[in-house]
Amino acid sequence: MAEIIAFPLDRYVGKARHVAALIARRRGKDRDTYFRTTCHRLAAGLRGIGLDEREVQRQIEAFVGAVNQAVQEGWRYPADQPIRTIPADGPDLFFRDDHHPPGAA
After folding, report:
1. Which of 27, 32, 59, 96 sits in a 20 to 30 Å window from 3, CA-based?
2. Residue 101: inside a domain, yes or no?
3. CB 6 within 8 A of CB 46
4. Residue-wise pLDDT tens for the chain (105 aa)?
């Protein structure tokens, strides 16, 4: 069996900043739900490519650290800038919505 090496989630700087900016705009339960859902979807993607649970947890913890760093740096979108989000039933979070995962049409 081939060894799978995933690109480290904490290096997804744009994604971490995007999540931090959305968290800054949300409050209370809405913020917590969004952040938990994002982490669950990232974890599901890692499991889907075959990473073991220990590595999935390590990657999610690293991503949470990257988001926290972006929050501490005060990462924000300008108040008048619309934010594009991927719907819950949309493409995998590993890919920007203008790109397609390998093998997709």
Report:
1. 96
2. no
3. yes
4. 667 777 888 888 889 999 999 888 888 899 999 999 999 999 999 999 889 999 999 999 999 999 999 988 887 776 656 555 544 444 444 443 333 334 444
Exposure string over 19-35, b if 16+ CB within 10 A, otherwise e = bbbbbeeeeeeeeeebb
In a domain, 67, yes or no: yes
Dihedral sign computed on CA atoms, order 51, 46, 33, 10: positive
Helix axes 13-25, 53-72, angle to 10 degrees: 60
Close Cβ partners of 86 (under 8 Å, ≥ 6 residues apart): 93, 97
Residue 94 located in a structural domain: no
Instruction: Work out how many domains the chain is built from and give that number.
Output: 1
- The CA-atom distances, in angstroms, between 80 and each of 6, 27, 45, 76, 77 are 35, 18, 32, 11, 8
Which domain covers residue 26, as residue numbers? Answer: 22-72
